[in-house]
Amino acid sequence: MFGISEELKKKVEKHSGQFYKILKSSLSVKDEQILIISDYGTEGRELSKMLAYGYHYASLKKGYTVQLVMQEIKKGFMHADDHVINALESLPERSVVILSVSNKLGRIGVTKSFRGFCQRKKHKFISSTSLGDVESNKFDLFMEAMGINYARMIKKGKIIKKKLDKTKEIRVKTDAGTDITFDVDGMKSIANCGDYKLPGTGGNMPAGEVYIPPKGYYGVSGVVVIDGSMKTSDGTILLDEPVILNVEEGRVVSMRGKYAEILEQTFVKYENRAKYPYRIRHVCEFGIGINSGAVLIGSTIMDEKVLGTAHIALGSNYWFGGEIKTVFHGDQIFKNPKIYLDGNLLEL
Question: What CATH number has the domain spanning 6-146?
Fold first, then answer.
């Protein structure tokens, strides 16, 4: 079913308690049906099916009703397999959906958005994507990031969210050279802290960020020195040299650095596909990592959650309260931010 070796199964099974903790503490599973969607990964990069196996194993061990569906890796604008779409559409309302994939789920028909589908159907959900960016031997690091004290992280996230929601301007500086401001007047932030207990709620796993869209298209300006990791069309790059982005009126206008050309190629690739190409280079998000168990490994799903980092995203933000709708969303992570909310330093 999984195409997973006995050695990897034993490694995953040792963490069954942590998977059950997520099912219970984060999703508050009771008698709902659980649907797990995954893929087969590639040799040496099998995190997607390792995590899926962990959730499946823990679910069966605790007597939950669980279904697993597998497909090949999906990239770009590919569609999910028919049997995956059928499994989603056949799921009773107010169920639980767990997504664990090497890249993307794939398009699921007219609904397009996995998040929107789950919200409409009142499903609780967790999503782990782009897991193919890293090797299978990073499994234990993922388990550390997912095994943190959720009550403590939820409390921290709510405090930060409350402050961001009252803020008009965010200024972020780093010793590496970042100095950028965001107009967030009237915008609301999202605390993704692993609290997915209510029907229709969900988010990333590992969890651990608070993020906010800027106001409109033009309210971001300054310089960002990306020195953590960089999301591209071919995956996430753990940076050994920084990429420097110059932002004017909300849009990246120039870049420099060893890996700048790779990001430029990513922009061009998505601009060629986009109905409105100019939206691809717009800054659409500012986010703060708050997960004390996460470390930078070259996988965005983990890297953007690391305590002691912040990130900007480029492209689309319409699904979390922004105005920009396009085919790309790429998070770019930088280290050791000093974050000022209306001039006051945010203590993390």
Answer: 3.40.50
